[in-house]
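User: Is it possible to get a 3D structure for a protein together with its bound compound? The compound here is flavin-adenine dinucleotide. I've pasted both below.
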Amino acid sequence: MPLRRRARRALQTPVAGRPLRRDPRAEREPGLAAAAHSAATGSAINVGPSGRLRRDPRAVVRQAGRSATGRLRIDRSGRAGTVSHDRGASEHVDAGPELICIEAPAFWIVVVPDYEGGRLSSHDRDVFGAARKLSDGAEGAVVAVVFEAGEDLGAAGADRVLCFDDAAFAGYAPDRRAAAIVAGAAALTPRHLLFPDTAVAGGDIGRRVAAMLADSPAANVHRLRADEAVSRADGDRADYLRAPSRVLLMAAECELPIGADRCCEARRLEPPAIEPSRTTITDRGLLPTNPGSVPLAEADFVISAGNGVTDWTAFHALAEVLGAAEGGSRVVCDAGLLPRERQVGASGTLIQARCYLAFGISGAPQHLQGIVRCEKVVAINTDLHAEMVKRGDLSAIKDAQAVMPALTRLLEVRVGGA
Ligand SMILES: Cc1cc2nc3c(=O)[nH]c(=O)nc-3n(C[C@H](O)[C@H](O)[C@H](O)COP(=O)(O)OP(=O)(O)OC[C@H]3O[C@@H](n4cnc5c(N)ncnc54)[C@H](O)[C@@H]3O)c2cc1C
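Assistant: Yes, that's possible. Here is the predicted structure of the complex:
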């Protein structure tokens, strides 16, 4: 075999009459060390054991924080490689957040978060992240416009806060809120007004504001730069590029929220005195819905069962008293204990609930993939070392069959006593 003979000759270099043998392991060591280093640093360019440079496509996505389709992927668990404000918190806990004060900004960006019940959703935080991207480095500042007091807006990225907490704006009052935003913005003449493009509030109010300002808003914007807004449309099959409109309706995960290492001033501005406009809308309150009919992907609160659940009556009773949508692992759906559309996970539904309550679920990778975007996870499991327990923000090492009825009783007492 001519090839093998040539290779053997190259290995044997005669020195002082003796052949010098190459040690392949020693040759690989620098490559191995570099490979270990690149793996440890999470670098996208790895060095293989042979010393050759290799590109890790997953690390590229992690670093850019974007999927192959260009959408940002934000892991809200705070455990994975993508940046999240929670992870930032643990890194910078000692130094404390840097307080950013902007006295005389060159321009304003207005953000109107949904801020339901005075709480910022992850979508709201993403919109603040996009606003900061526009203002930072260009001497701009961000004003939050809200209609009730609540969670700290400085930590989300607001330099100023304009709060209209008049009873006239309470409940479902999109026309009055839109009028207040336009009046509030008139004094500031903001460069852009950003809304989360949600059905609950932002999408509706933002379109009303755009109509009042005679603006043609960019909707479902998933990427925003000073000179370009990219909207996704046609069932996620097409991107539309345009110069950013004045009113921008932002998609979830349009930008990373600001890290916990920074905090803005959130200085209160005096809201202009405005007469609440006449309204043709009567708020008749919210209609109670059957949580079981809410699609898993849209549910805010999901209670989920795995192979560790045997008392299904207790599970359904707890779901009802909590008003939570039911989900389950593949094992229970395969067994016909829950319908297939209730399966959470890679081959089921990817959910983005604010709270995920997992009873007797081990936390297999395929299941965990389905809850990456959940904000808070509570695990109930008899196994302290279960992956779901590690993933949980709060975990109880208990028998699910004991916890479910106990929780139901507690809630019934609370609701009955209220
Ligand atoms: C291609 C592929 C795709 C898949 N897609 C999905 C998917 O989309 N979704 C999905 O869920 N799975 C999926 N799976 C299956 C997945 O790998 C796991 O097998 C499955 O998630 C395990 O379900 P489980 O955690 O309910 O059951 P088990 O793995 O049996 O875990 C049961 C858990 O319950 C705990 N437990 C037991 N008794 C009690 C008790 N009395 N009280 C409290 N805890 C108790 C145990 O400690 C254990 O952690 C997929 C698998 C493959 C191969």
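The chain has three domains: 20-54, 98-269, 294-417. Residues 24-41 form the longest helix (18 residues).
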